[in-house]
Amino acid sequence: MDIRVPEPNKQPGICYAVGNDGIELPVIDITHPAFAFSVSDEHLSTLIDNMQRASSLPPGAMQAAATKSILVRGMLESADTYTTGMMTYLNKLEPANLGDAWATPVDRQWAASLTPTTFRWRMRDVARIVADGLAASATARPGVALHLINIGGGPAPDSWNALILVNKEHPDLLAGRKITIHALDLDAEGPAFGARAVASLCAESGPLAGLDVNFDYLAYDWNEPSGLRSLLASLPPDSAMAGSTEGGLFEFASDAAIVANLKVLHTETPADFVMAGPVVRDAGTLCPRLKATEDLPGRPAVRYIGLEKFGELAAEAGWRIERSLDGPMHQVVQLTKD
């Protein structure tokens, strides 16, 4: 892929990869200081206040901002549907990491707001749970291949960050193994970037240097889980595995699709398989100042399903919520098999 818009001010220790549009982008590594994530209660409260003020702006204000911002334009285009994998990825970069060659002050202002902050929050927490699950599975199966199943996650940054965490915390655990990230998504653009991002991470001096990490894309509609079943059935049964759906299945799919996919994962993966993903809070657990977001016109079609309802769906498919990590909009769950 040719670089049409190179990044002129690359930061030391960060890998870069190019998107299908030719823009060179930083590859998120949550262990690098440039992507360090911490939000105080006071700062979170300010973000919520700012969101409330923004929601009362005149109808044309966001459209006007979109003419000056790739990020705002992308969010408006996701109204009543999904935010694309690449647009979600751009929102995770943080203001200082947006490219000098393409980002505007409006992009940076948006990137500092509540919605992108919650995207970064949930990615960090999903990566943490996947890393813990994968490390446990790999420890129990010395030397075998590792497979990360990523449903609806676009470029799958939570998966590669889970590998970075495992590699830093257990330096010898991944060496010598064949590792594959399986990105299951309808949109091929995000996984195409994900493959190039992983190649960059595995290059000399990258955080995954020396590891045999492959990136496999499967065009997938979660309403037809037979594709997931076929993929899992093709993998060696003794493989170490973990799975995730960050910004995907648990947030946008119907009850029936959530249960159907979890049933396939339950029957076709090892007993210690861990599945992670964010569940959007319901009215009972959402901060009162955020309840209005459920009724905002033009928002993505995310479901405010809540942990209690989601737990019932998971149980129907044979899973239990082992733990959850709290965020302002989401609760990231770790599912384990009953």
**Outline type:** globular
Structural class: alpha/beta
| Approximate helicity band | 25-40%
Largest sheet geometry: 7 strands, mixed
Give a count of the beta strands, DSSP E runs of length 2 or more. Answer: 9
Number of helical regions: 12
Reading the helices and strands in chain order gives EEHHHHHHEHEHEHEHHEHEE
Q: Alpha-carbon distance between the termini? A: 45 Å
Strand content: 15-25%
Please give the radius of gyration in angstroms. Answer: 19 Å
Question: Biggest sheet: strands side by side, in what order?
Answer: 5-4-3-6-7-9-8
What is the averaged pLDDT score? 93
Pick out the low-confidence regions. Answer: none
Overview of the structural elements:
The protein is of the alpha/beta class and about 350 residues long. The chain has a domain at about 15-120. The chain has helices at about 40-55, 60-65, 70-75, 85-90, 105-110, 115-140, 155-170, 190-200, 225-235, 250, 255-270, 305-315; strands at about 15-20, 25, 145-150, 180-185, 210-220, 240-245, 275-280, 320-325, 330-335. A seven-stranded mixed sheet has the order 5-4-3-6-7-9-8, with helices on both faces. A two-stranded antiparallel sheet has the order 1-2. The chain is globular and about 55 Å long. The termini are far apart.
